[in-house]
Specification:
Blueprint lengths: L8 H7 L25 H9 L13 H13 L4 E5 L2 H12 L5 E5 L4 H9 L7 E5 L4 H7 L4 E7 L11 H10 L4 E4 L4 H4 L9 E5 L13 E5 L2 H14 L5 H11 L2 H20 L4 E5 L9 H7 L6 E6 L2 H11 L4 E2 L9 E3 L11 H6 L6 E5 L5 H13 L2
Parallel strand pairs: 2-3, 2-4, 4-5, 5-6, 10-11
Antiparallel strand pairs: 1-7, 6-7, 8-9, 9-12, 11-12
Helix pairs in contact: 1-3, 3-10, 4-9, 13-15
The protein binds ligand LCS.
Amino acid sequence: MKNSENLGFFTRQVHAGDFNDPLGSATVPIYQTSTFKFKNADHGAACFAGEQKGYIYTRLGNPTIAALENAVANLEKGFAGIATSSGMAAITTVYLTFLGKGKHIVSHNALYGPARSVMETIFARFGVEYTYVDTTNIENVKSAIRPETAMIYTETPANPTMGISDLKKLADLAHEIGVPLVVDNTFCSPYLQRPIEFGADVVVHSMTKFLNGHADIVAGMIITANEKYHKLINPVMINMGCNIDPHQAYMVHRGLKTLGLRIERAQASAMKIAEYLQNHPKVAKVNYPGLKSHSQYELAQKQMYGPGTMMAFELKGGFNAGKKLIDNVQLILLAVSLGGIESLIQHPASMTHSKVSHEKKIEAGITDELVRLSVGIENVEDLIADLDQAFEKV
Ligand code: LCS
């Protein structure tokens, strides 16, 4: 019953996973152990052979971690979850599963910087080939496909441009050529977008962001749409040792229970802030999926359950003006990361995307002028007052 997909999101964010503690604990306890005792030699051998259910060793599985994996998989409407030590661990585990010497990935040119730089600096050394295109236009993806293409990867809305890619069109294309569509759903969380509903095969998350929501841990998650992909990816995570720690898993599970509440609150403020910015004389452009001026506003309405809490904007005075703004906010923190209860502002070109070359950033729309804002749950009038006083110094 508690795992039913028919229950509402707020009910599922509290109960999904259907965890039953043997001692009756109402919340998921932290199984802070590296190893589990076998009943006898035969039981140990049967657990290893997969003939009997039983925990063996925390890198391979742990009840606290399993509770979190089941809960997030339920919210994403996926088959199963695989928790990892970070969002990058989730991404590299998926890359390692589907790519290898001579294999090719078609990916978005605007995505979290290290998700691209790890490909260009590390995976390339092992003979993996890549093409980065603007996946917001399906034609670009079609023309980048090669016989060796083994994965289509996107992030929507993209970090930091807020460009939106059409999940259904990408999934149809991926299936036409028989490869998985992998989607980084970090910017939305399952509260605002569920890529599997549009045909995505694998979803990745930096749980450091919305799922945990309190900016106090780093963690990741992989959700597969089916058993086949779960069976391919899970041993890679286990053998590469990308597992999450039980304490971290507990923290995310605790944060997950208020996911929708946090997003509803911050999203209402984000809409007001986006309108405030759009009307501000010192602002040149605002990229927020909730504004009709967003170039993919219609698509956002179609595939997202809300415009979210992330936005990017450009100041008329260019980078120097942006720098003045971010140096003068007092309440909003000048810090990378996103999706927490506190509002954060940062400069992608010199911070989160600094390892991507200047030409590649420009091609992807990550201009020097762009400032990214993650709206938290503070009172919106206080956030606007903070921006106001910082704009006065620009
Ligand atoms: N995917 C997206 C969309 C991200 O924004 C990030 C981190 C990751 C994956 C990687 O997750 P991690 O390993 O850090 O848990 N994004 C960051 C950002 O925009 N600022 O700081 C980190």
